[in-house]
Specification:
Two copies of one chain form a homodimer. By secondary structure, chain A is α/β, with parallel strands linked by helices. The first copy, chain A, is built from 14 helices and 16 strands. In chain A, strands 1, 2, 3, 4, 7, 8, 10, 11, 13, 14, 15 and 16 form a twelve-stranded mixed beta sheet that branches. A two-stranded antiparallel ribbon of chain A has the order 5-6. The first copy, chain A, has a two-stranded parallel ribbon with strand order 9-12. In chain A, β14 and β15 form a beta hairpin.
Amino acid sequence: MGSSPPLALIFVLLLFPSSAPSRARSASVVTRLPGFRGPLPFYMETGYVEVDEVNEAELFYYFIESERNPIEDPLLLWLTGGPRCSAFCGLVFEVGPLKFVSAKYNGSLPSLVYRPYSWTKVSNMIFLDSPAGSGFSFSRHAEGYDAGDRSWSKHAHTFLLKWFIDHPKFLSNPLYIAGDSYAGKIVPIVTQEVLNGIEAGKQPPLNLQGYIIGNPITGERADLNSRVPFAHSMGIISDDFFELTQRSCEGQDYRSPTDAKCEMCLNTFDEFLSEINLGYMLDPKCARTSPKPKTPDRRTLQEEYLYLLKPPPIPALYCRNYAHFLSYHWANTDIVRKAIHVKKGTVGEWQRCNYDLPYTEDINSSIMYHLRVTSKRYRALVYSGDHDMLITFVGTNEWIRSLNFSIVDDWRSWHVGGQVAGYTTSYSNNLTFATVKGAGHTAAEYKEKECFAMIRRWLSHKPL
Amino acid sequence: MGSSPPLALIFVLLLFPSSAPSRARSASVVTRLPGFRGPLPFYMETGYVEVDEVNEAELFYYFIESERNPIEDPLLLWLTGGPRCSAFCGLVFEVGPLKFVSAKYNGSLPSLVYRPYSWTKVSNMIFLDSPAGSGFSFSRHAEGYDAGDRSWSKHAHTFLLKWFIDHPKFLSNPLYIAGDSYAGKIVPIVTQEVLNGIEAGKQPPLNLQGYIIGNPITGERADLNSRVPFAHSMGIISDDFFELTQRSCEGQDYRSPTDAKCEMCLNTFDEFLSEINLGYMLDPKCARTSPKPKTPDRRTLQEEYLYLLKPPPIPALYCRNYAHFLSYHWANTDIVRKAIHVKKGTVGEWQRCNYDLPYTEDINSSIMYHLRVTSKRYRALVYSGDHDMLITFVGTNEWIRSLNFSIVDDWRSWHVGGQVAGYTTSYSNNLTFATVKGAGHTAAEYKEKECFAMIRRWLSHKPL
């Protein structure tokens, strides 16, 4: 922790005047959800798993059984990015079986409807609020919120082991670790953790099969450096300025350039990007919420358009992130918290993404983890919405190529409903890369049908 | 004419068993249109102007007065591409004040409604079916259909002179020549024709101010060669294949490569493109209508997705070109033809684009015309929908830069409604280049509001 804890943390600490003991693990079936008409058409459970006994940190999760064949279908652990965005976002905006009705908020509870292209149609899914301080996950001690890449990954692994102890019937299902954006950096690290645990004979034995990441951060230069050629090819910067920047910044790390001319170029570049919806360059840039960060965008990997501070801002109804606004009003309602069995007094205001708490990027790059895990023949699917400027498919393609795997199935289109849905290359070591044509940062939010077909095929070991 | 005239031409000739004389010019006010509820909320006139006395070729036009101040607002002559697409397409799908209601065709007349972002809100517009054989324009002799770049341009000029004789009150309005796609090649040539006429003292004196072109063809290599880097940057072809093609095709004209390896690469490239909606790469590729052309796409500049032969195919209702299908059913109805005063027996089936008739590209490149006209200080606006793969903004940007004009207002974003609508550069010689973000080949069809703001500002001599 820094020397002056942020206000939110002080608030969190006030919530636990006495360190009352609580059950380390809990699980409750949820058959109805406020805002959703009738009983849920799928099996859902929420619960907590303590992952840090010293600090009494408990991670909250939403578990949804496969709507096809829960006994045999794979099990996906879904982590959401940020870091510290709630996994509920993954559930309700991306790959889960619910979505908000985009109707003007009138003070009453926002409505939820069934989302037909849910990945739970073909897999069991755990949406995990992690690390502590995300969504409804909490810690009873301030130190429990002091997360980083390493602790997040370890906690996710601890979570899995304990969760499976309570759910032994899923131990034989193929297990995949999944997530996107910043979670794309953590997923291979968690996979490595699980793999280490398996090799060390940790109990219970997990049936790990591989991992899935969308528009993932790696921590490599390519994540941000690639924005410049991508912005050029998308017609956002001119030929001349592109060439000048390339020349001035050759060999530089765009996050911390040492060359003054490069620095100047990147400042201009930031101005060009600041006008654009980076998550999907063709969408309007909608109400942004927080004061402009003092550091230029390129310095940080936070998803700028997810950067919602409390109180939530109100985007226009036509904006894609209007539903994000609704999520605040849903998740912060007492009857909702009661319905999903949130422990009283553990979390103040639920936030889509909680950037108030400290987070240490204590692993520079995930590349070695990708290499280690795939070289052990675990399967990997890396997909990229191709209109995302936060983590471009150009940069992702670049680091995948740098792994120097041989190509098994060369770059080709993949199809859904007779249309090109994107392009894919399969590499040795069971790694598949796929773009999603016309999708943004959280690809499944933009191309539901296509991303569902992608995951269905890939989980079934079929070509995309 | 070739030695075996196409069937359509024979049909056309059968329509004129006797060469009955007709009035060389006609004009009729149209106050109501079948399919449009109530009187038209703008002044509209249709008519014919004979442009080729020998062959008795008459061009059909739709004239719509500015809805603002017809006395002072500019007058735009709008030509549509193809060659030989009807200017009605420009009126009803792009920049005019009407559009089709996209409802399932049930045998009754398709409905039209008012299109609020019409360019006629700020300018008088003539939509000209040209050359003869397009839309409702016709010739009484087969030779009249034997058009090419030169004759089309001359006829457009002749049309203007005769039209102004009958409409002298518009002679003082600023005159602009406009059009997109293939018409983008013709527009600067027509402008040069008009300019020559002015310099030669032809009467009446036209108040030419400049020209406007959208996603224009030039006839230069850049038109097609640029598709390869553009497809690469859009993630349609792989890095490796892009590099191979660039290497193999260096210095080649992609329309007729002489190198075998290049030829092979381009054939593979054609296969990648054949799956995509070239007019807007993010739209689905909808019912295409004609048999696949025997020559690969890159050999021809015809707009592939406009390639509709009779009888029209039926795209899915969700397809953008469903309205194109409706246009056949509207324009081929007797009450419609009567309402717009089409001369009986002159045109068989109205077609969106009539590719049955011969057309000679007898001017290789329009570049010299751009140079000549702009060097005389006539104004030019070149705009490009930046998601068009038929004529990419990359290629257009390339030839504009090759003109070596100095930059007056360097590459910057332009805005509509607080959002980036595209990027623009202004050059000396009064040339402005603008991209339209997220628009396809016929930019105003995709981004109505933005293109309207663009033309309104540019016609008022304001920065975009």
